[in-house]
Design a protein that fits this description.
about 130 residues, mainly alpha, 2 domains, two-stranded antiparallel sheet, about 55% helix, rod-shaped, transmembrane helix, Peptidase, transmembrane
């Protein structure tokens, strides 16, 4: 395994290279760049950081954040929870009323089936104390 040498790595990053853009038909040099690996790395890293910062700033400081799931306004989320509780209670009340109306309808039509209790209750009688 090769040893890691910081000096040789830094030297390799600082080596200068020439990037030439040429016209394919005339072989004329259009643009020439003198680059090193370090300068390319720094340039690409800077562009990445700037684009990331711009994207974050665009989302945080504009209304675009409303389109991100879970990143809504606190008041909107609270109102949404309240509306959910309210609709659940209204749904339950509607079910109770439907059941009540079905029972009233069956009583009015005479379709009532009452089960009579066949067990007798033994209720103790109160003692009359007369003087």
């Amino acid at each position: 395994m090769a040893k890691f040498d910081a000096q040789s790595t830094l030297k390799r990053l600082q080596n200068r290279y020439r990037l030439v853009v040429m016209n394919d038909d005339t072989y004329e040099e259009v643009v020439t760049f003198k680059l090193s690996r370090l300068s390319v790395y720094i340039t690409l890293s800077t562009i990445f950081v700037l684009l990331t910062g711009l994207t974050v700033a665009l989302i945080v400081f504009t209304p675009l954040r409303m389109y991100i799931p879970g990143y809504g306004d606190v008041n909107t989320m609270r109102e949404l929870r309240e509306l959910k509780v309210r609709t659940d209670s209204l749904e339950q009340a509607m079910q109770y009323k439907d059941k009540y109306l079905d029972n009233v309808k069956s009583v009015l039509q005479g379709n009532i089936s009452v089960k009579l209790d066949t067990t007798t209750l033994s209720i103790p009688q109160t003692e009359n104390i007369e003087e």
